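Re: [ENG-882] Designed sequences occasionally contain unexpected residues at chain ends

Forwarding the minimal case from QA. Structure tokens:
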């Protein structure tokens, strides 16, 4: 399988009867596969990583979304070290982005063989474009989501703009837990720590959600 997901034909123009359904926000799906260099498999630097980041599609309507979503590889069909990034237009899937740097992410890790993460990913993305997660939290609180395919396990993360107040962040985590429609363990970490360490998932956990309950 090719490392990069197939890209379908461009979306058709709007029907004359106005049957397309516009989304509240425009969303962009990005893809990258981490390239390792050198004998020890050292990852490329951030500049080369950004150069490797490709836009798969941009979605302004429900129909745009399904036209792409139904024609790209499922997350668990991606090669190892590949990532999907689903973000609002104007926000890059980087810790340093102005909309991301003061926030954090709720995330889960699942065994590589667990295909339920495909359903988790679809449920999460649908909740994002349907504004289910953002209800009463602020129009710009949700930044995007990331699926990471790894040999040691698959990861899904929901990025938000503000790491405080605690009540807001916890409410978002519980909402994410609900829309996933399973029983995953979620953890919250802040991008400040990622910016300092250069690591995405080995930083201190601020909260966990287990069995639908927030724990410190």
């Amino acid at each position: 399988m090719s490392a990069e997901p197939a890209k379908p034909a461009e979306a058709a123009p709007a029907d004359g009867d106005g049957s397309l359904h516009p989304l509240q926000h425009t969303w962009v799906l990005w893809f990258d596969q981490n390239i390792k260099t050198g004998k020890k498999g050292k990852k490329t630097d951030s500049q080369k990583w950004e150069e490797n980041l490709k836009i798969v599609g941009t979605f302004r309507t429900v129909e745009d979304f399904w036209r792409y979503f139904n024609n790209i590889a499922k997350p668990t069909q991606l090669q190892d070290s590949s990532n999907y990034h689903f973000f609002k237009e104007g926000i890059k899937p980087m810790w340093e982005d102005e909309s991301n740097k003061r926030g954090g992410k709720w995330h889960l890790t699942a065994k590589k063989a667990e295909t339920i993460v495909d359903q988790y990913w679809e449920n999460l993305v649908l909740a994002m474009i349907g504004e289910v997660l953002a209800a009463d939290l602020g129009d710009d609180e949700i930044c995007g989501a990331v699926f990471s395919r790894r040999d040691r396990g698959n990861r899904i993360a929901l990025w938000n703009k503000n790491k405080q107040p605690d009540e807001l962040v916890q409410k978002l985590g519980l909402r994410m837990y609900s829309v996933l429609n399973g029983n995953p363990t979620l953890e919250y970490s802040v991008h400040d720590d990622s910016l300092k360490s250069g690591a995405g998932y080995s930083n201190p956990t601020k909260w966990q959600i287990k069995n639908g309950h927030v724990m410190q």
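QA comment: On inspection the terminal residues look reasonable. Helices lie at 46-52, 62-69, 116-129, 166-180, 191-197. Proposing we downgrade this to a documentation issue.
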